[in-house]
Design a protein that fits this description.
The chain is of the alpha/beta class. The protein has one domain: Spore Coat Polysaccharide Biosynthesis Protein SpsA, Chain A, CATH 3.90.550. The protein is built from 8 helices and 14 strands. The strands form 3 sheets. Strands 3, 6, 7, 8, 9, 10, 11, 12, 13 and 14 form a 10-stranded mixed beta sheet that branches. A hairpin with a 2-residue loop joins strand 11 and strand 12.
């Protein structure tokens, strides 16, 4: 299905690439591996991958780092829900490839430098995408409410961007969101920067004239999971429990900390 914009612009999702970031330490999560939280039995990282598949994205690179083996195993076990299979190929750099009979193609790329920061994982993923993918989505792995329709809405907005704009950033009520959409020419420039540590974020900050903003229809683009408290909010939004964390222990600990603070006043 082609996604149409103004001026007869069209985007074929099968030609779109995506970098799915699942490498971070999540240091504020108190030891919870958020990519392995389960919503309706599905790990969060697998859910986000499924959403990209349902949106028709043709090429996906999942970047892993922290807890890489556990996250990769969850993907291998659950990705058949997207109609794909894991190939037997295991590269020396710990990359793996999963191929559907037609689409999508998914590569799991392990970033050995994930401790350097998120931009190193963005660069790792961009370098692993096939050169023919255009445009490219950079997707946080903890957008727990993101749906395929949200991806299609974003691509439609990208197709309608003003002339000269090569990067699209979603915004919800003034808050910057994710995924970010970039033209392939920008991907090449990011990869070839003099100081690659700047990453995509640094490139965007240095080239505001190339960036368009799109006001999106819901908070799916801005609601991510940074702390255990965010998981409680997610459960409230979903109306059901999220598996893979000790909810009771967190609430008891939070209550104890609150009581201690009250005693100190």
């Amino acid at each position: 299905m082609m996604i149409e914009g103004s001026g007869n612009l069209e985007i074929d999702p099968a030609q779109v690439g995506a970098v799915l970031l699942a490498a971070g330490l999540a240091s504020r999560m108190r030891g919870i591996v958020k990519q392995l939280l389960r919503i309706d039995g599905e790990p969060l990282v697998g859910r986000t991958l499924r959403v990209l598949c349902e949106a028709g994205i043709g090429q996906v690179v999942v970047v892993t780092g922290h807890q890489a083996e556990a996250i990769e195993s969850a993907l291998v076990n659950d990705f058949p829900d997207c109609g794909a299979r894991m190939s037997s190929e295991v590269h020396t750099d710990a990359s793996r490839v999963m191929e559907h009979q037609s689409k999508p193609t998914v590569r799991i790329k392990r970033n050995p430098d994930y401790l350097v920061g998120q931009q190193s994982s963005v660069l790792c993923g961009l370098q692993a995408l096939p050169v023919q993918t255009d445009p490219v989505l950079v997707v946080l792995g903890d957008l727990a409410l993101l749906q395929a329709q949200d991806i299609r809405e974003l691509l439609s907005a990208f197709a309608q961007r003003a002339p000269g704009k090569r990067i699209l950033v979603p915004r919800f009520r003034g808050q910057r969101g994710n995924p970010v959409v970039v033209e392939r020419t920008i991907v090449d420039q990011v990869i070839n920067q003099r100081d690659p540590r700047n990453g995509l974020r640094g490139f965007i900050d240095a080239h505001r004239d190339l960036v368009a903003s799109s006001e999106v229809s819901n908070d799916h683009y801005v609601f991510d999971l940074d702390t255990p408290s965010d998981i409680l909010v997610l459960e409230s939004k979903l109306g059901r429990a999220v598996a893979g964390w000790d909810r009771t222990a967190f609430i008891e600990q939070a209550g104890s900390q609150l009581a201690n603070r009250s005693e100190d006043l």
